[in-house]
Amino acid sequence: MAQLIPEPYRIKSVEPIRLTTPEERKTILAAAGYNLFSVRSEDVYIDLLTDSGTSAMSDAQWAGLMGGDEAYACCRNYYSLQESISDIFGFPYFLPTHQGRAAEKVLFAAMVKPGDVVPSNTHFDTTRANVEAAGAQAVDLVIAEGLQPTSHHPFKGNMDVERLLQLIEQVGAQRVPLAMLTITNNSGGGQPVSLANIRAVKEALAPHGIPLFIDACRYAENTYFIQQREPGYSGKTTWEIAREIFSHADGCTMSGKKDGLVNIGGFLAMNSQKVYQRASQLLILWEGFVTYGGLAGRDLEAMARGLREALDERYLVHRIGQVRYLAERLLEAGVPIVEPPGGHAVYLDARRFLPHLPQAELPGQVLVVHLYLQGGIRAVEIGSVMFARKDETTGGWKYPELELVRLAIPRRVYTQTHLDYVADVLIELYEKREQLHGLRYTYEPPFLRHFTARFEPL
Ligand code: P71
Description:
By secondary structure, the chain is an alpha/beta fold. It has 17 helices and 16 strands. A five-stranded mixed β-sheet has the order 2-8-7-6-5, with helices on both faces. It has a three-stranded antiparallel β-sheet with strand order 9-14-11. A two-stranded parallel sheet has the order 1-10. Bound molecules: ligand P71. Ligand P71 binds at residues 50, 52, 99-101, 124-127, 182, 186, 215, 217, 255, 257, 266.
């Protein structure tokens, strides 16, 4: 039986959601060209499109909003954020940004030059795009197990340190201005990175003077996995583990929209005063003055509080337990998912779910469409629609190895009953999987296809 962990909070404010009728959903889907990015949020019952910016804030965070100091320079909320960042991450310098990708843009513009190479376990899409926008090459070096959907390695987000050393030797340390580690590894399914691996990466970089920056979006979830799975850490608090993680890093980028438990916000933090000074100039140009970086004072306060709440162990036990609960219910019914589940999402394996559909018929998108038709649930395809490439010479398609559908779980938003509902809908769908037919494009934009493509049933 899937293990149930009760919510460590009660509900003070509610937001009505409505389940449309199957007939309504048919009409809505056809009008949206069978692309869930074009469906109104009001027409979605359970929204699992992303865990980013979709968290419910606590009463303490909402109270903090009223304490927003909206002075242009040096508002008091800047200092409460400084205190949280110093307590958790330990970096002496930081710059607020409006979200994660802005921190990335400022960091790479300040540290990277054309022709450079930036290694990571796996660069998230926006990180890769910002490295490339700075004229450099983004290289992914996750361990082999990280790419195998059925591998039960406890830290599938780890970087392959051997390959890191080879890369540095091959291109020369002077062309590697920094290395990154994404915790947890979103593109690899929200899989954690171990402290042993973080230490080993730092040890590989240190003799070459290459700084290590952590993409810290889901740092709190990563601390919990270390506490549960890494030898020697079961007696440590998530706070102690966080401090140890960041003691090995020279800085971090952060999207507060994940483990900052806010709807908007982010920051860039570092040890180096020189990097801080260069980055400050760019921040003022692109985001705003160094004490607000594109956010209101109240947003800074909500993030200062959310960063601390995310490390609450009762919250994390429930949070990670909720994701695992949904995964276990699906596994019990034989629904194929990526194992083990990560920290923020369950990934369906569409190729095993719909083996009768070739990738040309877009099985991941078919699953997304039918999840909505069946139960008003919104998920996102991470497969051929997102990643297939057209061969310019032959006109044929090159399909990605994995055809996944992500069910991302917003933080503190949905209850146990909601997740049971999601599992029930999915299990029903799995039972009638042979009746599901493919899709084809009616509009295929030249890039970032998944956001605006349109489809029709075959
Ligand atoms: C997610 C997102 C949000 C997203 C972003 C772009 C396209 C689709 C969805 C955002 C991340 C992330 C990591 C590891 C940096 C960002 C950017 N993830 N690093 O998973 O997961 O942060 O959105 O605040 O700019 O749905 P930002």
